[in-house]
Amino acid sequence: MPHLVRHNKAPLIIVAVAAGLWAGFVGQLAVSRHMNLMTNAFDLGYVSQALWYDGHGEPFRFTTIQGVSTILEGLDPARILHPHWLLAFHVEPALLLLAPVYSIWSDPRLLLWIQAAVLAAGALAVAPLAGRLIGGKLAMLAFGLAYLLAPGLEGAALSDFHMVAIGAALLMAGLWLLETGRPRWALACLALTVLSREDGALAVAGIGVALLVGRPERRRLGLGLAAGAGAWALICFGIVEPFFSGGASAFSGRYAWLAHNPLALVSWLASGDVRAYLGLQLLAAGVVGLLAPAELLAAVPLVAINALSAFEWMRSGGGHYSALLVPLLLWAAMHGVRRVKVQLGETGARAATSLALASAVVAQAWVGASPLRPGFAWPELDPRAPSVLVALQAIPSEASVKATSALYPHLSARHDAYWFPARANADWLALDTAGGTHPLSPAEMRDATINALSRPGTQLVEAREGVIVATIGSRDGLLSDDPADRSFGQVLRNHPEALPPEFYGFATMPGPVTPLGTVRFGSSLELVGYQLRRWPEVGLFGNAATLTTFWRAGHPIPEDLRFALATTRSSDGALSGLRHDAAAAPLWWPTSRWQPNQLMRLEMSLDRTAGIQALGVSVDDSQGRRLQASGGTLWDGGAIVAVARL
Asked: What predicted TM-score, i.e. pTM, was given to this entire model?
């Protein structure tokens, strides 16, 4: 190894600089997501609270989903026996290693920076591993850069925080140490990978199987890895998680379709999204990974878990689900190039190495979140975010709180923090009614908020830009029949003006407007223009986007109108979706209260844009009848106005 480093300093330096730039770029993008209210209770919120508990002497505890009865990502929290135990969902003992650091600064931004830095550092293991297996500066540089270009790693860094992402870098280091003849250090890294999460154990067991099949001289080591990591995986899936969840693994429902209809497997694997996912992983393996079937075998269990899941995000190529695959696929690719070198010499090896790097560039351009992807732009900031974060400062750090998903990670460092609309006792409410309301729709969020505020004794503390911070009354039950006991929530049902004007800032906030010309719905409602904000996301589902439309009433509107977001399919331009009540503003400040000539702002969000050609809007009257539009580009017989192309 010292000889390798001494004669190949240049590619190592280049890869190290690239890794530093990657960590800075991706880390800043991840932190920007957090500060713009785009991180979530699942997963940054619950992981950060679990770490807070770890640092306070109560390992593997969290309160995030206690009292939540809504289905979350195919998971029914109401069926979990011990929803306050992290072990009911995942087995991640390695999280304990971060607890001392997180105790110093209990802020999720620390976790996001650690995740980006550790993932980037994995490139420093890839380059010397390529030099060892293939030889030459080109291989070191190409594979070091291919690692940093892998969408699976970038997706993990840009989808909250997961210990398994740290496990991916440890896995890469373990493979490097294993191939350079340092088994003890390799076993230490692989053991930490196993402890990062139960699927980390599957990855290490896969390496053991690969050694058993393809390396006769290492069969003893392969058997030990396969048996040890495999046994731990079985303990996690078969004993620990069922014990704490009160049944099978909490996520087993994602694969229930296989038991109900095994014959559907063929059509499932032939579906477009599964084929696209498998193609993306083939690119991550540089295509030449196919020439190393034994090493490629190590990736099969994780590919199967993702490809066969009914939870489609697992096979999107984004999120953290493919992070562990990157080291395994690059390992196979290096061995594939090595076989080419044996057969075709240096010229063949250079061609195969170049193919591996080109494949990584194609994968990044296809689904990545970087300037290599066509149309990439650094995301615009949410104009509400600074004011919202100031409002949260009113909540004491020790107080119990129920918070909506995007606010939860900012409030997770406390003993009792619940994901609204959990049925759990808390002293404070922190509700973002105008931003991300997952798992509730905007209309459901309005109703749940009013019900929460209808509890007698609830006091409003902050209300600005669509966010409500309130203390929760001590008396149980909803509003009584006594008119003297009317709560704030009940008043709000019929009198939106009961909230201060600052609350409705999200509906009246000015912004850059792209004009649409003269577009009207009915006789009094004018669509003035729009703004389209994109947020870069990794994966086959495309970027996230927010369509902001600006409206003006020419004269008072006597009824409350409903607004819908329409989408057309990119393949043929046909209407593909119509989502009613997609904007929070008219739900809180209905059109019957709009002032003539006042500019109103309606934000409608999309968590994915792949397969969508254009966005439009429609308006229904109080009887559910579509208002006819005039002006602009019209769809569906003049009932929908095209607003923006993606």
From this structure: 0.94
